[in-house]
Specification:
This protein is an all-alpha fold and 510 residues long. The protein has 17 helices and 2 strands. A two-stranded parallel ribbon has the order 1-2.
């Protein structure tokens, strides 16, 4: 009895130790998701300008490629969530096989997305096909990878810590992707025939002179440097998934009884859409992430076509992402001390500086804006993925006898954010077509310059403000998180006690 009494209080500590994550495991988990961000960053910053100035696709067709590609990735999210939720447990887990299987195909699709085909008439179909494949395949990786957070540990602090590691590494991946792509392809966007001060009598010809590569040279220097960058990033993909596989152990649902059944996908999706905290979180960060992607997609165009920062755009992009990478640990400490809802309003810091940049463009101000934007982007990346596990725990407490709903939450969240981003990016590219964007010329018409200023300053500011207003009504507080954690611990121990009692009864009957 005395031994039992001494052993009783020690059991929670033993269980806590069991679900504590080592730094090595957190790093391996974080590194596994970085390649997706490396490729996503490169395409977010450079795909639109590549399609316009290297592949010579009209802005309207570029808008179709961007929108349909994002839409295909968005549609794949619930489909992936459905099939993953039906997957059986294997020796390496339920989620890991999906990530391993799709990675080789993702690398191939990504490379051909940056390949300049030796024909002109079918280029739109070419890029549309491979961009759609790339978006769909990255979704098949991202959905199980995101849901893997719930299967690393039952401890909220450990999951938050793993999420912070993941966000830091993903921002570093975004930085690496933009820096690699920017440094490798920078020479493709230098117009040697353009001068800062054009001759007085040649203004029109200088304004309209295109800087296309020689059509006879299908693999021009501009196309080659983009292919080199694609090959390098493909190697990063392979390295990341190997580290993830070797360093991360996936655990089965620690709360579910053996008798619990998986929630049917359609029923689970319906319950998800009725769950108040999830709806408010998704609606808020849907708008915020759309604003961030809108800035990413048009930032390089703004620097090269509006602000006369052709020789600095790659360094400005690197400044944004370096600031974001460095500030993720700061935001993690901030949300631990002041709460996640309070940290969310740091996203608004970028608004006044972005508006200043489009109204008073200057080199020094551009670097200030880049630094502050990095701080806001870090908060916008960290918070939704840190809050989704809280929402899932809250749902789990209200639906204690179901399992397999984690992928429904994550896949539907990514679906909405991708779909909204695809719509806005498609509209922005179509807006460039409407205002008269001409690929390859030294200076764009005034309507195009005005459109880029609106896309960089006004539209993201409105989206962020509306998103933060919705976020005010998000109901999960730090106190409610602690209460949910205690209730789930009681639930898990009662499940374990029930299973042990059933096993004991079965042994007795035998």
């Amino acid at each position: 009895m005395a031994g039992a009494a001494r052993g009783g209080p020690q059991r929670p500590a033993e269980e806590e130790e069991e679900y504590r994550l080592s730094i090595c495991r957190k790093l391996c988990y974080a590194i596994g998701g970085a390649p997706n961000q490396v490729a996503g960053s490169a395409s977010a910053f450079f795909l639109q300008i590549y399609l316009l100035d290297i592949a010579h696709i009209t802005p309207f067709h570029a808008s179709l490629v961007l929108f349909i590609g994002k839409a295909s990735g968005a549609v794949t999210d619930p489909v992936a969530g459905f099939f993953i939720s039906k997957s059986r447990w294997t020796k390496i887990g339920r989620l890991m096989p999906w990530m391993l299987a799709c990675t080789p195909f993702t690398i191939v699709a990504y490379f051909f997305m940056w390949y300049l085909p030796p024909f002109l008439s079918g280029r739109v179909a070419w890029y549309l096909t491979f961009y759609c494949l790339f978006q769909a395949l990255t979704t098949l990786f991202q959905v199980p990878y995101s849901a893997l957070t719930m299967f690393l540990s039952t401890d909220q602090k450990e999951r938050d810590s793993a999420t912070a590691y993941r966000m830091t590494m993903e921002v570093l991946g975004t930085l690496i992707g933009a820096a690699l792509q920017g440094q490798i392809v920078a020479s493709a966007h230098v117009s040697h025939h353009c001068t800062v001060n054009p001759p007085v009598n040649t203004t029109d010809s200088w304004h309209d002179a295109p800087s296309f590569p020689d059509p006879a040279n299908l693999l021009s220097h501009q196309a080659k440097v983009y292919m080199i960058a694609a090959g390098v990033i493909g190697g990063v993909y392979l390295l990341g998934v190997v580290i993830l596989f070797l360093g991360v152990k996936e655990r089965d649902d620690p709360y579910a009884l053996n008798s619990d059944r998986a929630i049917p996908f359609c029923k689970g999706l319906g319950l998800t859409m009725k769950h108040g905290p999830y709806v408010k979180l998704t609606a808020s960060f849907l708008l915020i992430s759309t604003a961030v992607q809108l800035e990413q997609s048009n930032f390089v165009l703004f620097c090269t076509q509006t602000a006369d920062l052709n020789n600095h755009f790659q360094y400005l992009v690197a400044t944004i992402l370096a600031s974001a990478a460095v500030s993720v640990p700061f935001w993690q400490k901030f949300l631990q001390r002041f709460g996640k809802k309070c940290a969310a309003f740091g996203i608004s810091w970028m608004i006044p500086f972005a508006v200043m940049l489009v109204t008073i463009p200057s080199l020094i101000l551009a670097y200030v804006v880049a630094f502050v934007s990095g701080l806001s982007i870090a908060a916008s990346l960290l918070l939704p993925w840190s809050m989704l596990p809280d929402v899932v725990d809250n749902f789990r407490l209200q639906n204690p006898h179901g399992k397999g709903y984690e992928t429904i939450f994550y896949s539907s969240y990514v679906f909405f954010t991708k779909m909204s981003a695809g719509i806005v990016l498609g509209i922005s590219a179509a807006g460039l077509e409407f205002t008269g964007y001409k690929p390859g010329i030294c200076r764009q018409p005034n309507d195009v310059i005005l459109a880029l200023k609106i896309l960089i300053g006004v539209v993201p500011a409105i989206l962020i403000l509306v998103g933060l207003f919705i976020f005010l009504f998000y109901p999960i507080t730090e106190e409610s998180r602690k209460e949910t954690k205690r209730a789930l611990e009681i639930l898990r121990r009662s499940h374990q006690s029930t299973e042990n009692l059933d096993d004991h009864t079965e042994d007795t009957s035998v």
